[in-house]
Every structure is written in structure tokens, then in C-alpha cells.
Design brief:
Belongs to the CobD/CbiB family. The protein has one domain. It contains 14 helices and four strands.
Length: 316
Amino acid sequence: MIDLTAFLALVLDAAVGWPQPLYRRIGHPVGIFARIIAALERRWNVPSRSDGQRRMAGAVTVLILLGMAGGAGWVLQSLLVAIAGPWAWPLIAVLAWPGLAQRSLYDHVRLVADALERQDLPAARATVGMIVGRDTAALDDAGVARAAIESLAESFCDGVVAPLFWLLVLGLPGIWAYKAINTADSMIGHREERWRAYGWAAARTDDAMNLIPARLSGLLICLCGGGGWRILWRDASRHASPNAGWPEAAMAGALGLRLAGPIAYDGILSDKLWIGEGDRPARTEDIWRGLGIYARACLCLWFMAAGIAGGAAWAL
């Protein structure tokens, strides 16, 4: 049942994404997690507490998120199965669909390429600034293109492969527990002084939940990009994250580019290592090539989900 659910959720997300009229009316489900995280952080992550107390508070935050997201998913899935029986799977797919981001990620990155093609650098900077955390005001065309490609690669794991993986493994509780933790990591899982202790548990939990999906993402990018294996094996460990380097190194190798490198956050330069090789700057054409690889990799996930569903049906 979950296999069919995963396939239908992928189809729904690719077809319509999360429609803007729906977003304007009710927002997105991850917004619920964001409000909970922000409220707990304001209450518990206070400078007067020791690092140990703040780390413990952060761990409790993670447990609350896992309990709420996973518990709500389990209750809803159980109710649908009890009511609809063997026909519950399409209803579960509808509830899982917002946890995927195939369409929205493609659309966001495409807008960056469109702006660069129009030679509208301010618009390109503003658009890429919506999907990356680095400073974008001083980026040139190559810097914007590189940022878009890096975000595309990393978000392929966070927005598509990882939620699909947890949907297949644990059903509705799995995908929404993952989305809750991933949201927490993006909000509080940072190394700056304010977040280091309180966000430690969120960052480590997100690392654990992305361990397999990140490596699968890298393999799919190389497979669908027709190469990049040498850079994947050589450079995946150069990223500060134990997981993000896998899809990023795969994309760098497939496109023949250098990604990452020194990046500014809030006016402070972070001297990151380069991933990949090559002397030429990233271009708009590379964004389109990256989007093509991404689309083929998503299609591979469709076939994988359909194959798993077919295998399960055959076994029954």
C-alpha cells in the first residue's frame, strides 16, 4: 500500500506542486513545524542557561517534533486504513504529497536561470536568495549560477529523496517526522554561538535521517548525469556536512564544475573547500543542464517506486 502511495504522491507533486492559491489560503504544512520550533526556541534557548541546559532543551524540542509529526501521521494513516481499508492508499498519498518538493524546487531554480538569461542580475540575486542561505547581494552571474546549482543538488536530497525514503520506510509518520526534523535543522541546526548548543540535537538527528538518502541522491545524479563518479568519491567528504557533499559532489562531477568554495554568510566569509574541478565559471547553461539531470533523477525515483509497488503486488 505504501509503495502505491509513494508513487501517487510523486505524480501529484510533479503535476501541480503545492499550488499558490492553496499556499496563500492555508500556507504549507511545514509552517506549523516552523511556528512550534520558533516558539520553543524563544522560551528555551536563552543566554542565561548553560550550554548543557540548552542542549537538553534542544533534545526535548526534537522529541516533541518527532512525537507530534510522527504521532499525527500515524493517527491519520490508521484512521484512513480503518475507514477505507485497501483503498486508503490514494488518500494517504494526498496527505503525503505536500512533503515532497520536486515541482517547487524545479520551478525556483528555473526562475534563476530565466533571470540570468534576461541579463537581470538583481532579479537573479533576489530569486536565488530565496533558496540559499548565503549572502547574494554581491554575487556575479557565475556566483548566482553556482549557488542555484548547489541548492538544486542539496535540495534534491532534502526535498525529494529523503522524504520519499521515509515515506517508503515508515509511511505517513515517516515523511512528516522527517519534514519536522529537516525544518528544525534549517532553523536552529547552525554552528553560530546562538544555535550551537540548542540546535545540536536537531542537526545530528537530521544527519542521521539523511545518511542513506544523501548517498542515494549522489548515485542517482551521477547515473542520470552520465558521469561524475570520480568527483563523487573524491570530494563528497570535503563538505562540512556529512551528507550534503554527496549530491553536491555528484553534480559538480556531472557538470564539470567547481562548486562550494569561499561563501559569505551575514557578512562573514566562510572559507569552504572547493568541490569538483575545472577553471571555467558556472553559466546559465549549466543551470539548465543541472535541471535536466534533476528531472531524470526524479523520473528514476518514479520508476523505483513503481517497481517496488509492482514487486509487492506480485509477492501478494
